[in-house]
Amino acid sequence: MVSFGNRAMSSAESLEFVAVQDYLAAEEIARTKSEYIDGWVRAMTGATNRHNQVSENCFLALALALKGKPCQPHLFDTKLRVINQQSKRFYYPDLQVVCEPNLPTETFQDRPVLVIEVLSPSTRLYDLDEKLTAYTQIPTLQYYLILEQHQPIAILLRRNGSLFERLQLEGIETVIELPMLGISLSMRDIYERIEFTATCVQEPDPQYQEAN
Predict the structure, then answer these.
(1) pLDDT per residue over 25-36, tens digit each?
(2) Which long-range contacts (CB under 8 A, 24 or more apart) does 60-63 make?
(3) What is the pLDDT of residue 122?
(4) CA 211 → CA 6, 11, 47, 119, 173, distances in Å?
(5) Which sequence spans correspond to the domains of the chain?
(6) pLDDT digits (tens, 9 = 90+) for 93-107
(7) Residue 114 pairs with which residues in a beta bridge?
């Protein structure tokens, strides 16, 4: 089995092995979303208004930039399936851009070009480790963009051949270039209506504190 990085088990995860078809069926009627990691189910915690504002800003900017183009952004209600040898995972990225969509009857996508995650206390370790490793195994992925929600700071993983380059971008006047999509994202658009704070992790979160 392929390992996508170290993952600490939390109280929000199910310890019972679940088949993929059972997970997908349960998600269709569930009131809250859960992610699927090689048979284990991890319940997702709710996001803050600030987190959602950053995600929605990105979606709006991408929807406008991609209008008339074949690629389409999907917000956090769309699952992303990651298959690597014997490993099967389903995540709910904050945003993904897909140029080769799955069938309209399916509830997930397989071939994103861009994935965006907005960091939160409860998801920070997953986004920077487990999900980073998993997403960069996707053959179609060109960019993995990780955004702080309290300050205009971004990490961009950009494909260069079979590897990914890591860029750190800071400042409200910064523009994030995405040439494979023929577009760019400005930090000013991403952080519209966001009131910045002194540090990047503010909200108390027991799971985050336990992991550290």
Answers:
(1) 999 999 999 999
(2) 60/189, 61/185, 61/186, 61/189, 61/190, 62/95, 62/97, 62/114, 62/183, 62/185
(3) 82
(4) 12, 11, 18, 15, 34
(5) 48-78+91-194+207-211
(6) 999 999 999 999 999
(7) 97, 143
Identify which of 21, 20, 56 has the alpha carbon closest to the alpha carbon of residue 193: 56
Question: For the whole prediction, is pTM greater than 0.85?
Answer: yes
Tokens 């690629």 locate to 71
CATH number 3.10.580.10 given to 48-78+91-194+207-211 = no
Contacts of 128 (CB under 8 A, 6+ apart): 119, 146
Torsion angles phi and psi, residue 184, rounded to 5: -140, 160
Tokens representing residue 124 in the block: 């920070």
Place of tokens 């183009």: 69
CA atoms within 13 A on the CB side of 144: 25
